Every structure is written in C-alpha cells, then in structure tokens.
Amino acid sequence: MTNHSVSVKDLTLNFGAVKVLKNLTLDISEGEFIVLLGSSGCGKSTLLNCIAGLLDISDGEIWIKGKNVTWAEPADRGIGMVFQSYALYPQMSVRGNLSFGLKTAGVPRAEIEKRVARASEVLQIEPLLDRKPSALSGGQRQRVAIGRALVRDVDVFLFDEPLSNLDAKLRADLRVEIKRLHQQLNNTMIYVTHDQVEAMTLADRIAIMKGGHIMQLGTPDEIYSRPQNRYVADFIGSPSMNFIDGQLQDGVFARGDLTIPMAGYNYASPQPPGGPATIGIRPEHVVTGELVGNAPVQLDVTVDIVEPMGSDTLVWTEVAGERFRVRMDGHAQVRHGEPLRIGIVPARASLFDAKSELRL
Amino acid sequence: MAQARKRRLRLSAIIGTVPMMIVAIGVYVIGIAFTVFWSFTDSKLFPNSTLVGFKQYHRLWQDDRWLVAVQNIWIFGILLMVFALAFGFLLAVFMDQEIRQEDLLRSIYLYPFAMSLIVTGLVWQWMLDPNFGIEHTVRSLGWANFQFSPLVDPNTAIYGLVVAGIWQGSGVTMAILLAGLRGIDAEIWKAARIDGIPIWRVYIFIVIPMMRGSIGTAFVLIAVGVVRVYDLVVAMTGGGPGISTNMPAVYVIDMITKSYNVGQGMAAATIMLLPVIAVIALIGLGRIVSTRRKNAAILRAEATA
Amino acid sequence: MSTTATSGPAAAAAPRGPKPRRLSVARIGLYGFLIISALFFLVPLYIMVVTSLKTMPEIRQGHLFGLPETWTVQPWIDAWMHACTGRDCNGLSPGFWNSVKITVPSVFISIVIASINGYALSFWRYRGANLFFGLLVFGAFVPYQVVIYPLIIALREVHLFSTLWGIIIVHTIFGMPILTILYRNYYAAIPSELFKAARIDGAGFWQIFVRIMLPMSVPITIVAIILQVTGIWNDFLFGVIFAGRNNWPMTVQLNNIVNTTTGTRTYNVDMAATIITAAVPLIIYFISGRWFVRGIAAGAVKG
Lengths: 360, 305, 303
Fold this sequence. Notes:
Helix content of chain C: over 70%
Number of strands of chain A: 20
Low-confidence stretches of chain A: none
Number of strands of chain C: 0
CATH superfamily of the largest domain in chain C: MetI-like
CATH class of the largest domain in chain A: Alpha Beta
CATH class of the largest domain in chain C: Mainly Alpha
Mean pLDDT of chain A: 89
CATH superfamily of the largest domain in chain A: P-loop containing nucleotide triphosphate hydrolases
Oligomer: heterotrimer
Largest sheet of chain A: 6 strands, mixed
Largest sheet of chain C: none
Largest interface: B-C, 96 and 89 residues
Strand order of the largest sheet of chain A: 6-7-8-3-9-10
Distance between the termini of chain A: 35 Å
Low-confidence stretches of chain C: 1-11
Shape of chain C: flat
CATH topology of the largest domain in chain A: Rossmann fold
Order of helices and strands of chain A: EEEHEEEHHHEHEHEEHHEEEEEEEEEE
Helix content of chain A: 10-25%
Mean pLDDT of chain C: 84
Radius of gyration of chain A: 24 Å
Number of domains of chain C: 2
Structural class of chain A: alpha+beta
Strand content of chain C: under 5%
CATH architecture of the largest domain in chain C: Orthogonal Bundle
C-alpha cells in the first residue's frame, strides 16, 4: 500500500432506491487537510458519516491507515469527529465529556488525566473543565468538541460543518484556530462545509461534490483558477462567475457583436476545439480604471446597479445581452446609467463546452 | 471480528426490545386473531373451537341490548364531541384574552380529568339524584314542579351520561386547544389587526384552519374515550334503568363475565374493532396521498428550476 | 399645559400618553362566562366536601349547598375503616394499599420498558423494528375490549390471572403503546449527532442508554410518571377483571361501597370515600401543574 491515510474505493450508498453516493473514490495522504465542499444534499456529510462508520455502506471499501475498516465499528477506526451541533453530553462536565470515550475504552485513569490535560492546554479550555456544556458559549462548546476528538489520540479528524452554528466573527476566529491546530498536530483532517471561504482558507485540497459525485478534486488555486466544469466554476467565487454562451471558432469566442480572441488561454486539450461554448469570467478579473488600456479585449458597457460593499463595489452591467457583474475598487465613483469601459483578459477566463459543460 | 461486534450491538437492541415484540405480536396480532376466531365459535363460559359461521353476529344484531348499546354510543359520542369541542373552544378563546388568574381557572377547568371516571360517575349520580341533587335543591327553593333527573327515565338516562362526560372532558379539550391557540404565530394577529379584520372573522377563517392539529388531537382524545367508556356507565347507572344506558364496551365485558357467552362477546368486540381499522386505514390512505402529492410538487419544482 | 391624558373625556380631545383602558361590556361578559363555567366544574366538588362533613339527619333535610350545622369527620373515618363492600366492612383502606401495590411496580416497569423501546426505535432501527412500532401505535387505538378476553385466557394459562403480578403485567401491556410513542418522540428530537459522538467514543447500546440518554430523559419521565400514576390509580376495568378479589384496587372498592349498599344510603360516607379515592391523582395534579397538561397533550396521540 501507498502511504494513504484514508482511502475510499468505489463507495456506493443507497437509501432504498435512491443512490446517495455513486462509485466514489478518494485518496487522502498522510497529514493532508481535505475539505468536502458542496451545497446541501450533495452527499458530503453522508460521505463523512460513511468514513466514520456511522452509516453502513452499500458497496465499496474504506481504508484508514492501511487497514480495511469497511466493517469496523466507529470507535475502532482510529478517528475523532467534531459535529455541527457540538453534540456534547449535556449532563456531563467538560472533563466528563473529554474522558467518556477513554473510560469506555478502559484507558487507565492516569493516562486519561494526562490526555485531558494536554488537550485542554492545546485548546485553552483548562478553566472550563468543571463546567457543564450549558454554561459555555458556542465557541467554547466547539472547542470542547474538538478536544473530545483530540484526547482520542487518533490519526484522522473528521469535522462535520463544525463552524456553521457560530456567528460570523467567532467563525473566523475558530477557523484560524483549526488551521493552527492542523499545523501543530499534522493529522489528517477531513472537513465538511458549505462555506467556500472555510474551504479555500483551510484546505490542502478541496473536493467539490454534487449529487453524490466529486465534481473536482484539487488545490484551492486549481479549483478557483481552472474549474474543471461549469458547476464548479459557478459554485466557487462570490460574487459568482459571469457566463456568456456563444461559439468558439479558430481560437475566437464570439456571441453576436462580441468577439474575444482567446490568445494566451491555456486549453485543457492540446488542440483548440470549435463549436458551441460558454465563456466564464470572474467579476474580479474584469479590468477597470486606468489599467483598461492594458487589457487585450476592451468593451463599453452601461452601469445598471451599483452595490457598494466597503472594500469594493459590485457593478451590474450587460454584455451581449447577458447580466454581467464587475468588481471595482471600493472608491469607484460610478452611477446608474453611466458608461463604463471594461477590459477582459482571456488568459484568466474559463471556456466550457456548451453541451458537456466540461472545461475546454 | 468487526462484524461480530456489530452483530452483538444489534443483538442488544433486539434483546432490549423483546417485551415490545411480545406485546406487539402477542397482544395486538395473536390476541386480536383469537378474538376474531372465537367470534365464529359457539364458545359459552370457556372458549371452544366449534365453528358456527356468522351465527354469533346474527344473534348479536337481534339482541336488543346490543342495539341499544350501538345507538347509545352514537348519541353519547356525537353529543359529547359537539359539546366538549364547542365548550372547550370557547373556554380556550376566552382564556386567551390576557385574563387574570389564568392558572387558577385552568386548574379548575381541568381537575375533573385527573380523577377516575368512577369518581365522576358517582358525583353525577348524586347530582342528578331526585332525592338529593339538583332537582331536590331547586324544589326546596320553591319551584315545586322543577324536574331534572334524567337518570331515572330510560329515555333520558343517556343524556345524564353526556353531562358527566362534558364535565370530565371539556377542560382537557380547552387545554389542548389553548396550547394550539398559543402556538399560532403572533404576527398573524398583528397582520389581521393592521388589515382591520374583525376578531371573530380571524378566529373562523384564519385561526381555526391553522389549529387543525390540536383540534384533531382533541377529537382523537374524545373519540378514544367514547369508545372505551365503561367505568362511567358502571359507576353512574350500571347500564340502567333497564338496558337503557348500555354501551358496546359494557356489553362485551358483561358477555364475558356475567352472561358467560364468550362467542357473542367476541363478535361484539370484533365489531368494535372495525371502525378503528376503518379510521386508521383512512388516515394511512390520506398520508400516502399527501406524500404522493408532495413528491409530485417537489418533482415539478425541480423540473422548472 | 400640564394636562396629562390618562382618563376621562379630556383625553379624547388631545390624545397623549397611554391609551385609556376601559372595562368594556365584552370584557365583563368574558369574565362572566369564565366564572360561571368555573362554578359548573367546582360545584360538584364543593357539594361532595360539605356533604361528607354533615350528619345523615342534616343531609335528609336538604340544603345541599349549606355549610354543615354540626361538623363531623366521622364519615371520613367510616369511609376509611368501616364502610362495607358487600360482606367485608373494612372501609377503603385495604383498597388504598392494594392500589399502591399495583401502581408502584406497574409504573416503574412500564416506564423502564417504554424508555428502552423509545431509545431503540429512535437510534437502533433494526430490520422489523418499525413493524413492531406500527403495531403498538395501532394498539394505542384498539379498544381494550378487543384484546381483553385473550389476555384473560393467556394469564390463566400461566396461573397469573387474579394475582397482583397479573394486574401489573396488564397495566404494563396497556401502558406500553402510549409510553413508547412518548419516549420515541422525545428521543427522536435529540440530535442524532449526540448518538454518533457516543458511538465514536466507543459506547454500546446499554452504555449510551444509561450514561447519555437516561440522564437527559428527566422531563419526559416526569410526564410519563404523572400519566401512569394517574392512569393506573384511576383504572377500574383492569382492576375488577385481572386483580382478583384480594387485590381489588381502590376504585373497585369505592364502586362496591357506593353501588352495592342495601338499605339507606349513607351519602356522607360515600362522598368521603369518593374524595379519598380521588385524592391521590388530585394531589399529583395540583402539584404537577403544567406538567400534567403537557402529559395529556403528549399522551393524546398525534393523529
């Protein structure tokens, strides 16, 4: 075997007649931070529950640390798990919560105390050890929940939307802490979320899921810069990518009067194909202001709606009859009805086949 | 090994629920099967297995006592349902007007439900006793011709039971409906006030339809109580005068314990089961239809999206 | 200009400050209805209490509503110790202790079984579990008369008919549908993540039940206890059929005292006996307050 920490092979899961996961294969290396990202119902949490052994799978294998654990009990898989609702045992103190699993496993008392002490030190929850979960704030609760995984001294951590119940500021704080924890422990971590900021900031690799399939598996940069299909391109990025349907012919994308020569575009296949295609351009990749002159393609548009957001301003316009968003500087002075000159850099755009929706 | 452990865990769950399996199968499948089976036999004091076809049912529907019992359960059931729901709803609406001493009033309306139906039956036996109760009191106050003693007359005794039933059950109905009223989104009331809709219209056209759940709960509670009514009859009238206040539940028990006519008693019991099965089948059918409709709506929504 | 518009016609001219509250006709009618209704529920209890404290000669004079002229507690003593049920004249006290002997174990056993059922049905759905649950839900609606005779025969076969254990088993059986539904619904509302966390911590069926679920079940168990204690204490039908003469609960003895007396009726003793029988559930009702209502709402199966 290679040094995969977690391997999912041909995993299939059916609920009755419904196929929730379809022939999924995923290899995760030692110490890697993998994020499973997707909208609700895509199967990401289901996949995590299968890896944890909380759901019985219909077909395929799951390997953890070189052992086939497909039929093993959750407690025997060498995993720790952190849940969205924290899932702390409400009638036990923090100490009780941390030590319950170890007691169940018959770990000697001295060892339990040592591990609880170390985990609470790492997470800075020592002053909370004798409190009940109901006396903790949301952030503290989630720290205890992480601590419960930590004391198990396992190689693989599973996170099921751990930050979704927290408010925006706490979420940002704990996100950094999870990243620090990963740098410190270097465990394998599998993290499920629907929040793309969490995914981009935390992950070594992101798996974007839809309908029980992995649509793309790659580093955050690959996912952002070279989405493999239209779904991923649309899903990642906020505000999301602008799409214009048209024709690709001899390296030039055209839609009515609009023509964009795709010079400098890195095609997925060696021969530039032709036919119906969709071009995708991220709002933040549209050039405005003084730099427009440098852009290979320049267009004149009319400002429709202006959404100032502080750090930057989102401007809605129209290109070739399609809604088209442009991200401008926060100080940009634009108003409804004014003309605006924008520049497009084909090298940073994405092209998709109109039918298969795959990257060209 | 891993699988063995899994099997062991599942086994604990099965062992833990053995009593449930025994009761579910033993009482509600095998028990009912025996009851139905004996209804087709000529069992007298003890059950036997001499099959006689529908003879017991035939005799049952020629027995005056049974016919009176069936008639009574309709009278009792419908009257109690109408009065308890109406009275309970009025009480609930009035209790919902930010009144003082709400907890005290609630306790008063509800306490009869905490007591045994035997107690309720005896209390109202006395209240309706011509030598002692309401009639006697009103007459001693000067109205010498006042009459209110329904239990003495076979034609009216059943209405005496209804009065006792209302006394026992209206408070619970009130409590359930009040909980339903409180569960309605306060913004509905705000919206209705802004729109200037009269209060009674809000209750009839908006609130009552929104309270389907709790009205259903109260309905089921009363219905189950009606079908099971036994203690009340025994304590209040003993089924009399004559056979005038018999009910199916009383009939079945008397056939088993007094008349030693098990076969006919089981036929009556089987008849009692039929409406229950019919209602459950209707509810089940309703569920299937509504989930189908919901699924179809979801599919349509997905198709248009 | 210091006119504060609190009340009176002046307020109508220049509305300012709090809107005046008037006791409207509607509000008087509302209270009138509520109070008359309260009297309807209270009067029978009042009459029972006063009558139980009167002497028989005074009762014969009428004056149902009047307070006793000569107060006496003798009827209460008679009801407790001397009232006759057919042949025996030991009052209600044997029935009271029988009811205790029946109620305590029945409540305990039925709740233990139902909580395990609810837990297993919520978290360990094995193949077929839902079939059993469906049968129990069905059972909650089945009239007792439909299954009572087969139960008599079955208990007779195992020599438990007319015994204390026989009646305890019967109460456990008939309490099971409603209690199982109660516990299942309660556990179904507990986030399944808690269960998953315990599984990952390596806890098994019984460990999760005892260490995690039971400590969380206090509220529902209070509801279940109220439901069962009042239900079993108030039962008449099962007691008269399954308990046997020696174990007859209080309700059966009360009915015998009142409805089988020959000769003149001793209303004061009968009423004292009735109040004593109703006392236990009434005390539970007044102590438990809102829990009781919650129990009823939970006990009424959601249709």
